[in-house]
Design brief:
Elements lengths: L2 E5 L16 E7 L8 H17 L3 E6 L4 H9 L3 E8 L3 E9 L7 H7 L1
Parallel strand pairs: 2-3
Antiparallel strand pairs: 1-2, 3-5, 4-5
Length: about 120
Amino acid sequence: MVGYIGFHTAPNAEYLQPYVPGGVEIGLVVLPSFRRQGSAQEAAVALMHWALLARGVTRFAMTIRPDNHPSQALASQLAFVRIGSHIDEVDGVGDILECRLSVEDVTKEDSEKLR
């Protein structure tokens, strides 16, 4: 196992509506010995493309602590932009980041792999 990735809830969760209406939040973890090898980026792209093509989801959110530089860099590479912040009871202050996709963002090759 390299890590895990998934959605926190179904699309359009109530807690996301003020920030990313109709969107879904992504969470991921890569085990230390597998970090910085591209696994997180590849998994996130595949997950977002699947949600877009299979379920029509176009808006995605991530919540990342400002001092989590590797995750912030990954989010930037995936075209996420900061749209706000919040305070979590467990994790403290977190940046709320959003990425919007359209079908044009998915290559034909990606589309065939994900169907």
